[in-house]
Write a structure and sequence with these properties.
Layout: H1 2-6, E1 13-14, H2 15-23, H3 30-42, E2 46-51, E3 54-59, H4 63-76, H5 80-93, H6 96-108, H7 112-116
Antiparallel strand pairs: 1-3, 2-3
Helix pairs in contact: 2-3
Length: 117
């Protein structure tokens, strides 16, 4: 996923291209890369588009969007009390930069968005 996320927006890569990038740093089989990308496509994490005899792969969402979705999914499984406890624990362990980013995001939210939920 790191390689796909590093591509310019709207770009995609073949298995061969992803394998070449990964093989530069470690010994990895082409078939392993092919299997992982196929499974990610099956889970709708990446898009898969045929190009000739090969497929091109692109991330379905940005790294940030995927992280946010994972957090929302995790919090959705909690009770209200557990959700509050988890959020408080996160904030207590957050860095100053993370807290500043959270403050900025909260201040920029439109309060009318809360009424839609």
């Amino acid at each position: 996923m790191d390689h796909l996320w590093a591509l310019p927006e709207g770009s995609s890569a073949t298995v061969r291209e992803v394998h070449a990038a990964l093989a530069a740093d470690r010994d990895i089989a082409y078939t392993t890369v092919m299997t992982v990308l196929d499974r990610l496509a099956g889970k709708d994490v990446v898009t898969q588009q045929r190009e000739g005899r090969a497929f091109r792969y692109a991330p379905r969402a940005s790294r940030a969007a995927m992280a946010a979705e994972l957090m929302r999914g995790t919090l959705a499984d909690f009770t209200a009390d557990d959700r509050d406890t988890a959020l408080v624990a996160f904030v207590e362990q957050a860095s100053a930069a993370d807290l500043a980013a959270l403050r900025e995001a909260l201040q920029s939210r439109d309060p009318r968005d809360d009424r839609k939920a």
